[in-house]
Specification:
By secondary structure, this protein is α/β, with parallel strands linked by helices. Helix content is about 45%, strand content about 15%. The chain starts with 8 loop residues before the first helix and ends with a helix.
Length: about 350
Amino acid sequence: MTSPFFVSRRSLLSVLAGGLVAGSAGAQTRRGSDSDLGGVTLRVAHYKGGWRALLRAAGEDKTPYKIDWKELNNGVLHIEALNSDALDLGSGSEIPAMFAARQNANVRFIAVSHEDLNTQVTVAAKDSPIRSIADLKGRKVGYVRATTAHYFLSKQLEEVGLSFNDIDAINLTPSDGYSAFTSGKLDAWAIYGYNGQLAISRQGARLLKTGVGYLSGNFPVYANPKAIDDALRHAAMADLLLRIQRAYAFANKNFPVYAAAQVAETHLPLDDILDQFAHRSTDFSLVGVTPDIPDTHQKVADTFLKLGVLDTRVEVARFWDTSFSEILANGAAKLATQ
């Protein structure tokens, strides 16, 4: 099955009820004052401990428009909601965005955040003789199909002359993968996020490689084309993107404040979050769409075609919208002088 969009529109709308395109016509001239935005409600998806916690920690949460936050902890769900016109703004990795392009989903990509790639790891069991990616040949290796883990593992294998045909690759959800890894059913595991941190800190896993040098580090912001084309919602989204940009800059300098806000939502150990930040590969940032961004996204799509995850070549460039890029570039320039 090419697409991971397995959630039905009816079930997704039920969940939500509980809680390079050069811009479309007129996109560059949209304006909206704070008084105009008073009647606007943006429907925004967030991850637990993500944008909502970030804005609160940085004091950027007092917006002149309303935000209807929807907690959807999966990029595919963000895309589904946008495609169903149940959401205005979401985010995720390049991979759900790639599938969205394959399905010609009603979605655009308007900016990218840069995040820590040291949280994307390939690890070996502590008692395993595995010391390098080359040692994975013939071994049981867990991963999550059609995710960043699938992508960076394929690139790491390719680098040492191996492929998925040379390992016993086992597709597991992150939680099932953690259980399998801790019980000794896996020799190694390619995983992203907090599970990798747990494997290292709690299980003594041996770090073989991170995602640095294999992943672009670009995590797209997804948007509803109807919201982009609506003058007031476009203005509200531009304001929100600038707030997120400023909040990231705040978090880089005051991370314990943001970490405390994350803990309040995720209930993860504060020390682990602080340690993860201390060993980050890069600072947080939010930037507009530059010409290299669709190019790196295309490389991801082409790799997944080669891996058999996609059934046809996907041209992703036409889903990227540059109508917020100038304002984000100006915001970044202003932050650089502070």
